[in-house]
Amino acid sequence: MLKVLYLGRNRLTGTIPTGLFNAQDMEILMLQSNSITGTIPTEVGMLNAVREVSFSHNLLKGNIPSNFAAMENLVLLHLHNNRLFGVAPEIHHLESEGSINSFITDCGDPSFLISTPLVCKSCTICCNSLNQCQKNVESTIPVEVTGYVICSTLLPLIITALLYILQYIQNRGFLLFLQEGRRSLSIYNEDSVYCLIFSSNRLAWLIYILTGTIQALILYMFLKSSNFHDSETDWKYTMRCPANSLTCDDEAFRPWYGWALFFVVTILFLGSDFIDSFLQLRKAVAMANLRFFLSGLILFFLTMLALYTSFLYNVALAESSTELIMNAVILLFINDLDEQLLNVLDSVAPYWIASRYVEIEMNLQECSKNHESEIETPPRFTSSRFAGIRDLSSFKEQHASRHTSGLRMLGILGSSKMLDLNSETEA
Length: 427
Hints:
The chain has about 425 residues and is of the alpha/beta class.
């Protein structure tokens, strides 16, 4: 009664004899690391009691027999480093076995040694034609959908809904200590072109839209490169499955403190944007203001997308703690494009930028007049945003005066009553 057969690393040639599968009591069959050719016989399904099978590191070709799916006692199946192609049978009990080494095939990329790429959804490890392997990351929801829809869109909408509930409770006289009270001028993200949504200039709005679109598209490229099954993936294969072992070793070293430092660096860089987006959403709820809602929603969307992409890109590519930080810095630089663009605009067109800030200040002061819960908090913009303008108050007066003159020329402003009202607004 043959139960165990070890013939690995014996330089065996030829095909697998079908008579071998008459030993229906066989529990372990090891033929790895030889030069066996041909295909895997379908008679392999006769081994009802088999637990471990390894045909890895041979020269086998053809499809993987579907009979493997019916072997209920099977806990290990190694078929990698061969020339097998097509679609592998889904062996779900191997996938849920708990061992990362339970089901290994050549389902990785690149696959230039295989005539047709092998597809294996239930494999635990995929190897490629370079003899490199990696965990098979099979997600039911594509990472792009998770990043753009679930994390970056649904989450801020849920936060907004909770803020509406909180506002409703506060209107009934409860939880007043959580009442929103920041000044509008202190939360509008003034160091970024995203503050331009609060201006009255259409060109400023166009710059706002284009900047957000560019950032979202760049992050999409990195997110797509982090998808294990995408044809353009940058995923690094860090596992090695040697011919003399039934276990694979991961050569990547990403200890817990490396991830901890990654999150510290990322949160410190993105923290102010998260806080501003939350405060803007809260202000939108308290004041029923559409611009604050759009600004908070888009700012949260881009910031959360940057965090999600940084994490996933590191899972795909980082092989050490230093690479965790290095990859994070690259993606955080992309997240700062809006601030760098504002610096460029401030250098190229300082008076135009200064005019937009005056508009923003006037618009925010106007929309917050009736919001009594606002407390006195200072605005955060600095004099660098008014390059070439020494007297900001004088500039505001000139800006308002030009605005008034334009209205007069158009015949919109003319009565003394309206002039008096405009003077009060300027004051």
